[in-house]
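step: validate -> pass
step: tokenize input -> pass
step: predict -> running
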Amino acid sequence: MIKVTILLCETLSLFELGCATELFALPRPEFKDWYQTKTVTLGRQTLQGLGNTVFQCPAVEQLPATDLLVIPSFPVDVERIDPLLASEVRRHYDQGGRIISFCSGSFLLAALGLLNQRTAITHWRYAEQFKQRFPHITYRDDSLYWYDGRIGCSAGSAAAIDLGIAVIRDDFGYEYANAVARRLVLPAHRDGGQSQFVQKPLAPVNAALAKILDWAVKHSGSGLTVEQMAAKANMTRRTLDRHFIRHFNMTPHQWLCERKLEVARQLLETTHLSVEQIAGRAGFDNAVTLRHNFNKYLSVSPTKYRQTFQSSQQLV
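step: predict -> pass
step: emit ->
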């Protein structure tokens, strides 16, 4: 069982705290294995939240033994880190523990030197403040989150959920991560390499395009092509391309390939099917095409992916 500690620091951001609780502390009896999570503060039991709220949780002088430390938020204007907080977070890391932060929590990781020679991300509204205060740290403006298996940080709000789902996927695999996403009523998980879209929000998806997306998801495993999608939508290929780039910042070919890869990933994790069989079920022409797309989009071979994520409990 993986032990998680959610660490509350000073003034709380309620949304990010809710994300951490929903992702890691909510009981999930439908899973054979899951996280064992504690929520604590260091030194003081009562903390202020936004909107004139007050929170109480167990106060400790030392972090409990934990595999993953989650920092939902941290005040961006605090430059002098409490010595107890600093020593306990560093002790956890030095003992091999993982740490992820949501939104402004990256300011704490940066102040403690844990993002040196790593990539940093925070909410776009704090980006300039972060870069001015920590000019030696590589900052990414074009990503939702970043996670290297030891340290992770995310942009604000919903990107915290994306990072959390990525961690769950690493810990338990595709099916667990998707089940959590479904319970959160989320669409397909976004990878970290997407822009925060600060100045150019996505245009609303019209009803006709929404219908073709639903249809394509249901038929992506039957060798579906972009030309068939365009015909179903009563559009030319060029018009469909334009709609996809406008709404999703990708071509329909890229979108369709991602859907097929999702099917392939699930089958690799949960079945004994050969790579050739999985290629056919996922809608790829053959195993060679499947391997090419795995390496192109996931930087790993299907066989290596299966070795990493497949568990005997999930096999059918």
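step: describe -> DSSP finds 13 helices and eleven strands in the chain.
step: cleanup -> pass
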